[in-house]
């Protein structure tokens, strides 16, 4: 970093104590009576933040054929949950202030379970309504969990965030790889394959129940942060978050269908997606550590995005004999792009209050932008009747992410003012 942006120990302490709430920060360290139970609950909740997204992709062709969905409708089906991640994220701090973060997480886990069962049991209307509920639930919980990690594990925030991210990726991988075999095991029923993921949601709710009612008693001070929407650097961070996420959700939503179109079975395609996501466990931990060793993060951003694009083009165009190599390359790239997007939010913020608001901006606007990618893939496939033209979407999103990342990766702070309310 530049000398004027060097982080002091005091700033480090502020950064790890930041709340995920966009305008409320805890100032008194909480007392956690059973941290092991809280950690187990966090892991189980995080495991449920991707199965509702990645379980649909391997069955998308079968679901579309069963319900008579066009490619455009299938694209909307993959887009809707991602769109909800952005649209419903701003509700998280509002609900947390009203009911408490622990109660909200429990209630939204039950809403997630209801969305899963709705989309798997009530035809086309239920499919879309349940997908909306699931995406909204994931968007709200996804904002709250990092704040709980920072509040209750302040001294181990980095390690706990790594565990949380790994659990999130593991949940995505399990759902991508196991959904089709489960549907075949239970009589070739895609309904059961999708509905199965209500079980881990209910298990997570059961283990989270002890956290409800615990009062942390910390004194809260409200702050207002101004100027982010006028700051170019804040928009570059947001655009990088959104564009790399768009590629990620195209992979979740469409990669198995692309591979099935190239000759793989649904089970094989789901396993390729699952394997690629598992690889993300390693790069999501290593990429930020390596990026911090340089004077800024621009080189790291370019490298992981090139890996991502190489993997995507390989899966789309290269001979199938080398498919697993391209899938591994894709996983290495996307694990790095996602973790760097989260890292940039902290590094580009001067203090904890700005970091919390920049996080809200990047997730709310970024995920809304990200939802356009899966929709565009469905529309292009419907127009062309094939998958070859989808490569142009990969190229445009990847180039945009590199351009935004070159701005976001500079060792500077966003220009924003912070004042008490």
TrEMBL record:
<dbReference type="InterPro" id="IPR036259">
    <property type="entry name" value="MFS_trans_sf"/>
</dbReference>
<keyword id="KW-0812">Transmembrane</keyword>
<feature type="transmembrane region" description="Helical">
    <location>
        <begin position="354"/>
        <end position="377"/>
    </location>
</feature>
<feature type="transmembrane region" description="Helical">
    <location>
        <begin position="74"/>
        <end position="92"/>
    </location>
</feature>
<keyword id="KW-1133">Transmembrane helix</keyword>
<dbReference type="GO" id="GO:0016020">
    <property type="term" value="C:membrane"/>
</dbReference>
<dbReference type="GO" id="GO:0022857">
    <property type="term" value="F:transmembrane transporter activity"/>
</dbReference>
<feature type="transmembrane region" description="Helical">
    <location>
        <begin position="326"/>
        <end position="347"/>
    </location>
</feature>
<feature type="transmembrane region" description="Helical">
    <location>
        <begin position="389"/>
        <end position="411"/>
    </location>
</feature>
<dbReference type="InterPro" id="IPR004747">
    <property type="entry name" value="CynX-like"/>
</dbReference>
<dbReference type="Pfam" id="PF07690">
    <property type="entry name" value="MFS_1"/>
</dbReference>
<feature type="transmembrane region" description="Helical">
    <location>
        <begin position="272"/>
        <end position="292"/>
    </location>
</feature>
<dbReference type="InterPro" id="IPR011701">
    <property type="entry name" value="MFS"/>
</dbReference>
<feature type="transmembrane region" description="Helical">
    <location>
        <begin position="233"/>
        <end position="252"/>
    </location>
</feature>
<dbReference type="InterPro" id="IPR052524">
    <property type="entry name" value="MFS_Cyanate_Porter"/>
</dbReference>
<feature type="transmembrane region" description="Helical">
    <location>
        <begin position="161"/>
        <end position="182"/>
    </location>
</feature>
<feature type="transmembrane region" description="Helical">
    <location>
        <begin position="36"/>
        <end position="54"/>
    </location>
</feature>
<feature type="transmembrane region" description="Helical">
    <location>
        <begin position="128"/>
        <end position="149"/>
    </location>
</feature>
<feature type="transmembrane region" description="Helical">
    <location>
        <begin position="299"/>
        <end position="320"/>
    </location>
</feature>
<protein>
    <submittedName>
        <fullName>CynX/NimT family MFS transporter</fullName>
    </submittedName>
</protein>
<keyword id="KW-0472">Membrane</keyword>
<feature type="transmembrane region" description="Helical">
    <location>
        <begin position="194"/>
        <end position="212"/>
    </location>
</feature>
<feature type="transmembrane region" description="Helical">
    <location>
        <begin position="104"/>
        <end position="122"/>
    </location>
</feature>
